[in-house]
Amino acid sequence: MIKVVSIDRNGRVFIPASIRKDMELQSGGRALVEYSHGELKIKRPTVDIDKVHAIFTKRKKRKNVVSDLLEQRRREVEQEERECLRK
Description:
Residues 2-47 form the SpoVT-AbrB domain. One of its GO terms (molecular function) is DNA binding. It comes from Candidatus Sneabacter namystus. This is SpoVT-AbrB domain-containing protein. By secondary structure, the protein is an alpha+beta fold. It has one domain (17-86). Helix content is 46%, strand content 11%. The chain is built from 3 helices and 2 strands, in the order αββαα. A hairpin with a 2-residue loop joins strand 1 (32-36) and strand 2. Helix 2 packs antiparallel against helix 3. The longest helix has 24 residues, at 63-86.
């Protein structure tokens, strides 16, 4: 699918609502951006950290497991972001 989008003077790209909905991107959320050979790709992280956090924080008995899982996933997302920047 190809869409023409607007870019404001601050460099923000406006993603059409239909694409945001399809990609499950929400205001204030995070996305991965990859630039290579004149092409810009926007990707949704494979796991939504906020959703995982919401599920596991309901289980207060396992709080340490939740913290460990969230920290591990944050490191993975940061690594994915670094890899996208290197390409």
